[in-house]
């Protein structure tokens, strides 16, 4: 019973959105919609602006997560594996973007984008999204490296493997679950960014969060609910697809290597 109540509390918002998205005239005090329709989804999926917003959001989030992993990897490795003077100050510098008010960061990045000619461009938005995603990427990977055993790399080196081969066949395979979690964090943060996208993009780059907030101002609950479900779909599908991989036992990875 307790588990049922927990699941009900978690799924209730999604069920409510689903009812609104598939309803045609649901008014109080009716417990359920009197008429059902999928016109909201059909209209949105046949709208070129919606499809473009979805594709742009996916592309931006994917690129941001990839760049966050590439940039954050060396910093996380040093922080996780080494002790050095001033380490806590390095942590502080990395996490500053998470404690500074988002509006202050957004305004600063907007001014910088205007000065460098990146305002209203996808590149400007990508660089802006890296600011909030990088701290979480470094934090996640640093925790992985804190439990990482470099002896596997030394053994492969002693057996004659090149550094490149060690990286791709040993290091990446051992770090794969941690890299996936860090990449998911970066993807979800970038996917849900509204303020930075609006301030840096200036309305020229339309992503799904920007489109969703625009629909909210219109006040149509059916359209809002359908857009919200479309907004939730990619993260849920990605997490569901990688759930088994993320829960993999590290010992099983070691045995395969």
Walkthrough of the structure:
This protein has 257 residues and is mainly alpha-helical. The chain has a single domain (37-256), classed as MetI-like (MetI-like fold). The chain has helices at residues 2-21, 39-45, 48-81, 87-99, 102-116, 122-146, 151-158, 163-191, 195-201, 208-218, 221-246, 250-256. Helix 4 (87-99) packs across helix 6.
Share of residues in helices: over 70%
Structural class: mainly alpha
Report the average pLDDT across residues. 84
The CATH architecture is: Orthogonal Bundle
Q: Tally the helices.
A: 12
Instruction: List SSEs in N-to-C order.
Output: HHHHHHHHHHHH
When the domains are counted, the total is 1
CATH class: Mainly Alpha
Largest sheet: none
Assembly state of the chains shown: single chain
If you consult CATH, what is the topology?
A: MetI-like fold
**Strand content of the residues, in percent?**
under 5%
Name the overall outline: globular
Q: Roughly how many Å apart are the termini? A: 43 Å
**Low-confidence blocks of residues:** none
User: Could you give me the name of the CATH homologous superfamily?
Assistant: MetI-like
Outline:
Helices cover 79% and strands 0% of the residues. With 257 residues, the protein is mostly helical.
């Amino acid at each position: 019973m307790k588990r049922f109540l927990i699941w009900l509390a978690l799924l209730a918002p999604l069920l409510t959105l689903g009812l609104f998205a598939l309803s045609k005239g649901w008014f109080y005090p009716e417990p359920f919609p009197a008429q059902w329709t999928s016109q909201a989804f059909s209209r949105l999926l046949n709208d070129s602006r919606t499809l473009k917003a979805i594709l742009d959001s996916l592309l931006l989030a994917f690129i941001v997560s990839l760049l966050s992993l590439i940039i954050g990897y060396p910093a996380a490795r040093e922080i996780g594996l080494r002790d050095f003077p001033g380490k806590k100050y390095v942590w502080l510098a990395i996490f500053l973007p998470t404690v500074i008010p988002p509006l202050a960061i957004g305004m600063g990045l907007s001014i910088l984008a205007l000065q460098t000619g990146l305002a209203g461009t996808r590149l400007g938005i990508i660089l802006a999204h890296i600011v909030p995603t990088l701290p979480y990427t470094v934090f996640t990977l640093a925790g992985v490296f804190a439990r990482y055993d470099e002896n596997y790399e030394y053994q492969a080196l002693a057996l004659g493997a090149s550094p490149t081969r060690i990286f791709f066949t040993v290091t990446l395979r051992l770090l794969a679950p941690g890299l996936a979690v860090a990449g998911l964090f970066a993807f979800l943060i970038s996917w849900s960014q509204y303020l930075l996208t609006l301030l840096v993009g200036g309305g020229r780059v339309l992503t799904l969060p920007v489109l969703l907030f625009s629909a909210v101002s219109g006040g149509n609950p059916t359209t809002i609910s359908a857009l919200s479900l479309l907004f939730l779909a990619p993260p849920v599908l990605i997490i569901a697809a990688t759930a088994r991989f993320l829960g993999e036992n590290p010992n099983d990875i070691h045995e395969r290597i």
